[in-house]
Every structure is written in structure tokens, then in C-alpha cells.
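Take a protein:
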Amino acid sequence: MPLARSLSVTSLSGLEEWDEEFDLEDAVLFEIAWEVANKVGGIYTVLQTKARLTAEEWGENYFLVGPYVESNVRTQVELIEPTNPALKRTIDKMNSSGCKVYFGRWLIEGSPYVILIDVAFTAWSLDSWKSELWDLCDIGVPWFDREANDAVLFGFLTAWLLGEFAAQSEQPSHIVAHFHEWLAGLGLVLCRHRQLSIATIFTTHATLLGRYLCAGNVDFYNKLAEFNVDKEAGDRQIYHRYCLERAAAHCAHVFTTVSQITAIEAEFLLKRKPDIVTPNGLNVKKFSAVHEFQNLHAQSKNRIQEFVRGHFYGHLDFNLDKCLFLFIAGRYEFSNKGADIFLESLARLNYLLRVNHSDVTVIAFFIMPARTNNFNVETLKGQAVRKQLWDTAQTVKERFGKKLYESLLVGQLPDVSKIMDKEDFTLMKRAIFATQRQCQPPVCTHNMLEDSNDPILTSVRRIGLFNSSADRVKIIFHPEFLSSTSPLLPMDYEEFVRGCHLGVFPSYYEPWGYTPAECTVMGIPSISTNLSGFGCFMEEHIADPSAYGIYILDRRYRGVDESCNQLTSFLFQFCKQSRRQRIIQRNRTERLSDLLDWKYLGRYYISARHMALAKAFPDTYTYDLQEPTSTSGFRYPRPASVPPSPSLSRHSSPHHSEAEDNDEEERYDEDLEAEKDRVNIRQPYTLPFKNKSSAVPGANGNGDDDGNGDKD
């Protein structure tokens, strides 16, 4: 589902549509990944959101290849007959040879064609293919590693598919095969070993060894050059997986990663420098109403407030209008995702808010799926009590309104002392007594299977944040994906994010970071790190990220304690903002959406495919490699108007939201500020690609002859 933003004077223009000046009709693109129509992690989001742009570029010659999972196919794929004659012959040949290959349309935006291979149906070939893999590459796969076994089956089947398609094509076509992650990488290795006439691309979204090393609490980035990669992979019993990933990286015509920080990691761990960085984007859908995202924020915030009223019943001694909602979400990787330093920073923030007698209350949500057996009874009871109170209030309201109406009909002012009778007071007293609570509001919304060993709950016990009345920071751990059908918090993830004030993602290992990117598209400020691909990308494109609601935490050059202090400072300064300052900041954050749109970032994938075509078919295509400068694309300046953060303000202390007269004195003109942002846009670098058969002056799409992007 595309994320939405507003179209207004604050929207950025200047992004030219990518215009193809060469013929792709004799070229075919296969994109191979284990997460095609099979949601496992972030790669699913990459493929799903990028499909429309790629389908528009390649038309009927774009095919996604993935595993056949019946439960997913029933809900996501429409099975049809292949439209391409060569592909139909290929699938028929494979099916007659003991395989099960399906063809259909993936029911997402762009409706791309998908080829789904049933790997379990050919499990009888596993031993022979493992033996062949050992003979070819000296890579042995243990019998007990089911994921690696699936990778072997999937790799041999995709190589079979591509080879058969090349053989069935009536005329030689230029085939591009783009493989994502190590699970699909073996197919690439086999294509190169069999010398198939195919241009190959391998994209690693996160290195296997990097993820394992970071989970082991090592000083990863400062010791990258010192690791004995073979020993480290062997010690973690992933040497065979590592070999598959490294082989794919070295065999590919073009090797890409999703961020500069992952490119450095890949150079040391996989021993090959990526040819190009392909950042991940999102589909940004635009509203026609001005600042509609601000209205959506208010609506979603009200729904979160309703949940909070029920969760903290009996202890609702704080002002919800001065309550800030923070959240962290993602895979439950306690250290890699930065949940450890977030909790420590919350404890320090709680101290600062208390000693400064702040009237702000912070509620921090942890949305990280973990092993549970059911909802917490106390949490469900809270929502039931809230609903009962609401029903009671509505009943009394109806009675009061009826008596008031009848009194006014006869031309008399109502006697307030008589308009509510004993029954009304009895109902209200019973409702009040029902809200009495002897225990603290629960930290976790579910019953955890391993409560005593859970990292988040263990840390909460250590720092002592138990949602007591004296604490200004409250914690709610929701160990389950959000769903609009949940009886507890009936909101989907997008709606929940819109209702929060700040996303906090202090990750130590985050090759890209879709969670802060989604926050940005929805106009929600976020905290990320200089070890995440998203954080590095924003630092490169924005002169002062914090002014636009993108706080970059330094985890590369600072120790854990220093990083905690910096994160605490970010959070404390955010708590000191007035309501008006937060609105200004959300407006600025939302204006960055164009940076993350596939219409902009998709051209890096286009560049990778063109580079692969030029390497595989040098007689037909050429690609003059030109490194883009660090200022390619957008470059947002620091805003000249009033800063959204008190730490950057001209005033020594923050404004309170009640002091509207003081706020009016601050210089802020959003239309003027947005216009300055548009003026500072710089066009992304031009892809220096030519088709030899149609290489004519000006064919680079910019109207210039030399391909350097200059115009008169």
C-alpha cells in the first residue's frame, strides 16, 4: 500500500521523469529473490514498492522469480498462462521434467508477472545438486541447515529456468538477471559457471557475517579490517552460507549494496567493492489537500490516546495533551536495533524530566515481535474498563440531554441540581470505583513465554521504569505486529506511525532502515544513526538534518555511554519543543519525501542494469562509468527561519504552547522556506549509458551531447 503525503506549495518540484532513449524490446529482465510474493523481511518491501516503476520501464519483459508458497499464492497471486511464447515453452519443458513452475500476476501496484517455483517438489534432487555444488565450487552444505538446503534447490532451479529460457528464445535476446541476497545467489554462480549469455547483478541488502558479528557485541566497524572472515564464519557455523554469498558477489557482472555503510562492510567481508549503491525507496502517493498529513496525525494520535486511557486506567495522572508518543519498531534484535541504548536513554530522560519538574509525559512504545502465548489479562481489562466508562458517560449524557431539551421546550432554564437524579450519580460512582487499581499499569501487553530472560523486560527491571506515577517516562512493550483487527490496539502500522511524535531507531547494524524512511514520508521526525544506510544518506543530502526532523546519532565514533548521552539530549530537546515547533518540524520532515521516492531512487537500479548490459554485451551497449559527486541530487540547506528545536533557537529557553503571543514574533514563512528548498534542488547525476545501435547526440535524455548533464 503506497504511503501518502500532501501536494502543496511545500512539495518539491525538479525531479524529471526518467526518459528512455534506447530500445529495450529485445531485452528481458528477471528479478530473483526468496521474498517474491513471500514476506519474510525488508526485501519484500523493496520488491513490492519498486515493482511499478520497473514494470513501467520494462513492460511485458519484466518477470519476478520466487518460491511457490501456497498460502501466499492464494491471497497475493493470480495464476494465468504465460504470455511470452519462449517462457511458456520453458515452463512446459521444466514441468514435464519433474518440476512445478507456476506463472501469474502479483496483485500489487504495477501487477508484475511472477514465476513461482515449488522447491519442495524437487527435493528429490537435493543430494545430487549438493554433490554437483561441491564438485564445482568446493562448497559443502550440511544436511541440517534447512534454509541453506532451500537455497541450493532454489539456485539450481532458477539457473535451469534462465538457461532453458535462453535456449527456447527464437532469437538471441539480452537477458538481465538480478539476484537479491545469498538465498538466491547460487543461481547467479551457476549461470556464470555454465557460461550462459546473461547479464547478472547481485545485491546484498545486509551481509550474513556482518549481521552475526554485530549480534555478538563486537566493535564491528572499527575492526572491519582485522576480522579473519573464514574463521569468524566457521565459528558461527555459517561458513557454507558465507561462501555462497561471497561467490555470488564475485561472479556477478555488477555487485551492488543498499547504502554506503554496507558498501564498506561488503568490501572487507565479501572482498569486493560494490560497483554502485542502490538505496531503497518507497512509493509516495500525494494528497490534493494541503497539509492533509497533519490532519491524519491528529486523527491517529487520538486513537493512540484512547488506548493509553485504557492501559493506564487508575493511574491516569498525567495530561494527555502534553504527552509525547515515541516508538521503536522492527525485528527483535535487541542490540542491533538499538533497543538497549534506547532503554538506557529513557531512564536518563526520566531523571531529567523529573529534576526539571517538566509537565511533559513520554510514552515509549516497543513494537518488536517476540514469543508470547496470549494477551495480558490486565491489559485487556484496561480496555474493557475504558469502554465501560465511555458507555456510562454516554448513558448519563443522553439522560441529561433529554431533560435539558424538555426544560428548554417549556421555556424554563433547567435546575442543575435536579437535572441529574440519584440513579445518574450511582452509575457514575460505580464507574469510578471500577477504575480503582491496586497494581501498576503493565509494561508488556502480552504474556511472554520467556519473561525472565527477555532482553527488554530484563533491562526495564534494571532501570526501574515500571510505569509508576512518579515517572515521567512510561514504557509499553507490544511484542506483536500491529493489526487493525487487534482487540487491544486496533491500528495498522502506518496509522500508528502517523499518530506518534517521534520514531527512535538507534541501530548499531542497519544496512538501510525502512522504518525511519517510512516516518519521513509520513512527516514524522525520527532518530537514526550514522551506522544506518538511511542516516548516512540523509547526512549526504541535507546540510542540517536535525532542522528537518532527522536526528543522526553518532554510534560510529562514540562509545556506548557517549551515544546514550547524545540520544538523551536529542529526546530531552524534543520534549522541550512547543506544539507549534513540532508542527513546523513535521512540515519540514514531510518535504523530504521526494528524496525517498522510487521516482528518484529507482534510477540507481536502472544504472546497475545498464552497467550489467554493457559488461555482458559490449558489442551492443556501452556504459562510461562516472562516479557521482557527493552533492548529486538534492541538497537541502539549513532553514533560515525559526528553528524547530529549542537547542538551536535564538531563545535561551523553550516556548510553551500556551504562549501564542510569543510564537507570533518568531519569523516563519513556510511558503518562503519551501520555495528555498526547491531552488536548492540539484538534478541527480545522469546515467552515461548508450545503446550502440541508437547512440545519437542528445540520446542521454538531457538534451546535451557529452552526457555530463550540462544544459545551456
Observations:
- Residues 423 and 661 are 46 Å apart (CA to CA).
- The two ends are 41 Å apart (CA to CA).
- The chain has a mean pLDDT of 85.
- The first helix runs from residue 42 to 58.
